[in-house]
Amino acid sequence: MEERWYVAFTRPRHEKEAARWMEGLGMEIYLPLVRKIRKYRSRKKVVDLPLFPRYLFVRTSLEPEEHVRILRTPGVVGLVSFDGAPRPVDDIEIESLRILVTRGSHLTVLPDLVEGRWVKVVDGPLAGAVGVIKEVDREKMRLVVNITLLGRSVSVLMSPAQIEVLDL
User: Fold this and answer.
1) Per-residue pLDDT for 22 more than 90?
2) In the chain, N or C terminus with fewer CB closer than 10 Å?
3) Is the pLDDT of residue 18 over 90?
């Protein structure tokens, strides 16, 4: 069977661990990382974070024993599937992604922005505030978020890069 790229779905914040285990088993993996500045109480730190949280790419023939090895890898939940079968990713997509990651300066994967989703503001003067998406303008790449401050609801216009979707 021919080797193809597949997408492994991991437990939250286990992408690097799963990648190390798979590499140790001799599998070819690709975990696109982007450099971000994280703010802590009294300092800032530069960290490499997965471009696609909870996902990594693995090249395999997906024969039954390979499939089982992937599923038994610590941190891996499963393979991304459609209609019950793991769906391969074209080589050209992986190569394009590699080019973007190595040459791109500030890559951001935008979350699924739909009205009614709870979000947390991660950048700007309202960083840390939580609100609900009220309106999405995809043409201008802006959204309106309702945030409750001092017992009042305030609508704020922001960029999708300023928010993080919460899984509530």
Assistant:
1) yes
2) C
3) yes
| Phi, psi (rounded to 5 degrees) for 76 | -90, 130
How far apart, in whole angstroms, are the C-alpha atoms of residue 123 and residue 163?
Answer: 7
DSSP annotation string for 131-152 = EEEEEEETTTTEEEEEEEETTE
Q: What CATH number is given for 118-165 in this structure? A: 2.30.30.30
- Give 27-41 pLDDT, tens digit per residue: 999 999 988 777 778
* Domain layout of the chain by residue ranges: 4-103, 118-165
pTM for this predicted structure: 0.68
Residue in 104, 108, 99 with CA at minimum distance from that of residue 161: 108
Calculate Rg over the CA atoms of the chain: 19
Q: Identify the three-state secondary structure at position 155.
A: strand
Q: 72-98 pLDDT, tens per residue?
A: 999 999 999 988 899 999 999 999 889
For tokens 């201008």, what's the residue? 140
CA distances from 81 to 12, 31, 89 (A): 18, 19, 11
Angle at 63 between CA 60 and CA 66, to 5 degrees: 60
